[in-house]
Amino acid sequence: MQKALAEFIGTFTLVFFGCGAAVIAGPAIAGATTVGVLGIAFAFGLAIVAMAYAIGPISGCHVNPAVSLGALIAGRMSAGDFVTYVIAQILGAIVGTLVLYLIMTGKASGWTGGLGANGWGPGYLGEYNVVSAFVFETVATFIFLVVILGVTHKLVPHHFAGLAIGLTLTMIHIVGINVTGVSVNPARSIGPALFSGGAAISQLWLFIVAPLLGAAIAGFVYRAAILYGGET
């Protein structure tokens, strides 16, 4: 239960502050301050850095079903823990979006109803097609998992692991926000989609399948490297 609570809090924080930056301070909302793509990217990255050091010692700070799947395939966690983590992560994302929704409904004007949902196609940010979206989410999640599994290896000093992981997520967002809004995390996509409805729901499958695929490939690659390449 300690691990589940930690994952709930971590995913809540990621979604609330990451999507919150996009909705409250992003370029889509007219107001006194906008942070743009770079600011949104750092909001997601810094949320991961903060949670890595806050809940990392308890649960490892996966806050992402794709990360948990990669860890499972790599032999880093049990199937029972995997199920517990995923449930806690999805619930954390939903509650994080709910709190953001409650805040945004108090805005007098200017809010169009968006909650940072992922998407693609005409009318969505850079208007990339489904192939571009799928390729980006798969490759970006693969790279994300390679970094996570590498910097948390037992032979690697872990003092700066949270910083490395957070900066990697920031890098991914800088490149990918205009493509898909960046998921690389099914829970992060599920929360906003449930409250946004419409295209966010119909396109949600991609932000579940592609990140899980990328994570699974990374998990298999990591496991193969350990089994056949030695512990170094």
TrEMBL record:
Organism: Kaistia hirudinis
Gene Ontology annotations for the cellular component aspect, listed alphabetically: plasma membrane
UniProt-listed InterPro entries: Aquaporin-like, Aquaporin_transptr, MIP, MIP_CS
Predominant localisation class: membrane
Location in the cell: Cell membrane
SUPFAM superfamilies with a match to the protein in the record: Aquaporin-like
Keywords attached to this entry: Cell membrane, Membrane, Transmembrane, Transmembrane helix, Transport
Membrane topology: Multi-pass membrane protein
Protein known as: Aquaporin Z
GO MF annotation, one: water channel activity
Pfam family, one: MIP
Family membership noted in the UniProt record: Belongs to the MIP/aquaporin (TC 1.A.8) family.
Database matches in PANTHER family: AQUAPORIN TRANSPORTER, MIP17260P
Superkingdom: Bacteria
Cell inner membrane listed as a keyword: no
Transmembrane segments: 12-30, 36-55, 82-104, 130-151, 163-184, 204-226
